[in-house]
Amino acid sequence: MTTTPSPRLRLTTVDTDATVHIELHGDLDYDQADRLLEAVTAKLAGHARLEDLHLHCAGLGTVDSMGLSALLMIRRRAAAAGVRLHLDDRTATLDRLLTLTGTRDHLTSFPADTAHTSRTPLSAEPPGATGNARTAARTSEPDGTT
Fold it and tell me: Cα separation of 65 and 98, whole Å?
């Protein structure tokens, strides 16, 4: 049996003071996912005033579980840095994968003021809070685990 290598992922990056645009061309798969993750991590670390990270997905081919994992890790790192992640020009195939895995809303939505929120540790309570303020802030909606 012979396997053909996946098309190499090509990244085209355009930076401004507050925004980074990365165009993705090729497959986001087991062989290439780390490459994107490393590039995005470097951009997040290298831009102190970064507010928006746009991944342009129109040129994406295959996205496998490692590619999806990379996108989820990018979302986590962007949120931790206070940066809004945008998955622009998504292909129908990518949208279907995100919908089937239940990750579409997580990866394509963000709090309205993500870039300007303070990074408060989970154990810290807001000024003036008493007792069990975090419990009161929980929603009563199902979390999808039932």
Answer: 11
